[in-house]
Amino acid sequence: MGCCPVWLYQMLCFPFAFLLFQVNSSSISLLSSPPPPPQLCLPQHSSALIRFKNSLSSFKEINIPSFPIGSEICRDSDPKTEFWNQNTDCCSWEGVTCHSMTDRVIGLDLSCSPLRGSLPSNSSLFLLQDLQWLNLAHLKFSGVHGMVTEQISPLSELVSLHLSSPQLKLDNHHFNMLVHNLTKLENLFLDHVDMSLVRPDSLRNLTSSLKRLSLYGCQLQGKFPSEIFSFPYLENIILTRNDNLSGYLPKSNWSTPLRFLHLSRTSFSDELPDSIGNLENLEELDLSFCHFTGSIPSSLGNLTKITFLDLKSNNFEGQIPDVFGNFKKLNKLDFSSNNFHGLLPSSVCNLTGVTDMALNNNHFGGPLPYNISGLSNLQSLLLSANLLNGRVPGWLFSLPVNLAFLDLSSNNLSGSIESCMLSKLRNLWRLDLSNNSLLSLSSCSNDVNSTFPKLNILRFSSCNIHQFPSFLRASETLSHLDLSNNKIQGSISKWEAEGWESLIYLDLSFNLLTNVEQFPGKNLQTIDLRPNSLQGPLPTPPQSINHLLISENELTGEIPSGFCNITSPLVLDLSKNNLSGIIPRCLGNYHSLSVLDLKMNNFDGKIPRMCTDEGSLLRSLNLNNNQLEGPMPRSLVDCSELEVLDLGNNNLNDSFPHWLGVLSRLRILVLRSNKFHGPVQNLRGTSFITSLRIIDLSPNEFNGHLPTKFFQNLKAMKDMHEEPTGPTYIEELPYSDSIILTIKGSEINFDKILEIFTMIDFSSNQFEGQVPKVVGELKDLVVLNFSHNSLTGQIPSSLGNLLALESLDLSSNKIEGRIPMQLTNLIFLASLNVSHNNLVGPVPRGNQFDTFTNNSYIGNLRFCGFPLSNECSESEGREPPPSIFDEDDDKGGAFTWQFAMMGYGCGLVLRLSMGYIVFTTGKPAWLVKIIQRAPNHKVRRQIHKTRGRRHKPIQPVLSSQLFHINISNS
């Protein structure tokens, strides 16, 4: 084959070369030419956004709460609108998204911006009809209610709507309007919007295309429609913190794409269905603080993608099936505060990815597994408050170095834990092994390597410790140490105190310590040494101390002058020692001092001026059982927060302190066993009288008539409407006021003052005249004692209205006439004493009166009938006991009594109750029996309306955990 002619070659190749040159030239031209003009949003959209920006204003501080998964946590500090400018393209503005082809604004995200303003119906925001994403979460809009939905509803292109804000309120009509036209909606976030007026049934109107629904803290009420769980595309559903939202989980037809299910703190109930195992895509399941019951289905093990599983604080029960083998991705497991029992499933200790495990507050028993193959990423392990027993396995101290929290408290574990074992846990931050009475803690023979570089909290209360572990000196970061209720003897030496320099909180109560050479640390805020066997002078605390509790010891001498150097004391409890001398004046100068308890010592002299600093926070002043003298300091009127004032058992000489009338919070006033005198009158103010729940004026030298106006103003004893607020705690250490009440020659030391324990004791004075009828209006009164006075007249029938009364003592007076039959309606009356009066006629019969003995009536020569030996004649007659209730009332009235504590910091406004005991002479054996059979904190009792029926006698019930008794018969 011959060569190609030149002309043919030129004709074929030249065009190709030319084309190649043109392509290269074009490429070079494209590379060297300027870029195309930037995308420009539509002018009307830019203008609408600028007008919307101008309707808002920014503010510096933003206080956004944390939100659950499915709702972002706000961290932004600058408004996203800050650099919006009319001269720039709005598509480049922060928070604005435009369509790539049409240049229309399709997304607006101003979430978490510190912006405030109104959102009127004519807002320019609603001109952006092409919006697909709108996020205005956590902006502070004012005056925004359902009307905003009228404007958003026409934005039919919306795919994602985020309006989370506590300023927004929706009713049922506006919610339905909101979702009616939003047929393309996939994401709806309304966290913290007030939806209390939205019926949960309205949620059925949401489009079935919904993928994410977040209604965190929306105050929803009623029953949640279970059909929502079957929406075909639903991935996330957040209903957390809707306390009054009830419902149940469906037994079938779940949305298979579901990934996040959060129902925490709702009223969802019923059992966990087997169908839960069909949610193969589920990653997070939070059913905590609900009302679920029953056992855990084995199908739970099918959730192979689960990372977060929280079932705490429900009523689940039974044994947990061994379902954890497939949980390869699980990070958090919390089954705490349920009723699970049996052995821990072996697979739970083989989880390799879990970081937090909480199985505390159940009934798990048996020993811990001796061998594990997992827990390699564990950071927190909580197994407290179970029934675990046996020796602590060694693997606990070979857990990963990341372990920070270990709590095995309140079990039955045994063995000895040495410091060198613990030292392997280099990142341990909190260790709690308390309440394992067979467990001991000791130091290794060589503590050089026993260091704890991050240990902050160590609790080893109620174990078997006999001395301070020496390794504690090496814990430079230790701030909280609890070794209470052990058998530690000896003293807190200077050597040990210097090793605890970082301590803030130290609890050594209920040990056998005899001396404190030096308080530890310079930053100590709370120390509890109640009760030990401390002797010698009272040591000077560091200036940083807030709570000094050193009662029930054997300390002597005066209060050191160093107490005047304390910076900000809150609670000083030096009671039940042998301290003497005068009370330092500086204790009355502290603005911060809330509780000063010096009772049962030997202090003498006058009470110093109190509350000298304006705005004093003093709530409780207890100086009972000392040798104080002189008048009450008038400066007490400046203690505006005072709730408890106990000056009993001293040598004070004064008239009734009517000037305390300005103290509106005063609830307890004890002046017993002093030298107070004169009438109870000149009541310039009535504020403190209305709040009083306990007043004890016996025995003193008061005279005159019983003050009718005084009883009229005792509002707190007439009706209780205040809700309980719970006890106040010092750190994690509860502190409560206590008082000693003397009844029939016996002392009751109430370690916790009870709000509903109401008492009036005016006994052993020189009062005269009649018992005022208005006393019968004090329907919450529990104890009434007017004995050993010179009262005359008759017993008012109005006392039959005192339905809560458990003790009535009118003995040793000059009262005459009959006992009113109305008193038989007092079905809680446990003690009655009307002896040594001038009463006549038959003793009433029925209810509690059938239980009283002859001692209740002796010294009344003209009494007759049971239980007395002399029978009544027909002429003396007997009237049937009338009922104080309406015979036509078809609804039985009832009131409920509850036990609780009254802490020093809560204002003592707690709705509490207990049966009250009045002692007769001699040892109250019957009381001991009642205490032994009443171990629970709470006893509920009801008074039902009667129709003339006879009731069985009712004995008062009280908890031995609330008080102890000192028998001291006089």
UniProtKB/TrEMBL annotation:
This protein's GO CC annotations: plasma membrane
Membrane topology: Single-pass type I membrane protein
Main localization of the protein described in the UniProt heading: membrane
Compartmental location: Cell membrane
Disease resistance R13L4/SHOC-2-like LRR domain sequence ranges: 257-335
All copies of domain Leucine-rich repeat-containing N-terminal plant-type, residue ranges: 76-98
Taxonomy, superkingdom: Eukaryota
Keywords, in A-Z order: Cell membrane, Glycoprotein, Leucine-rich repeat, Membrane, Receptor, Repeat, Signal, Transmembrane, Transmembrane helix
InterPro entries reported in the protein's UniProt record: Leu-rich_rpt, Leu-rich_rpt_typical-subtyp, LRR_dom_sf, LRR_N_plant-typ, LRR_R13L4/SHOC2-like, RLP23-like
Signal peptide range in chain numbering: 1-25
UniProt keyword Transmembrane helix, yes or no: yes
Pfam (any one): LRR_14
Membership in a protein family: Belongs to the RLP family.
Protein name stated in the entry: Receptor like protein 53, putative
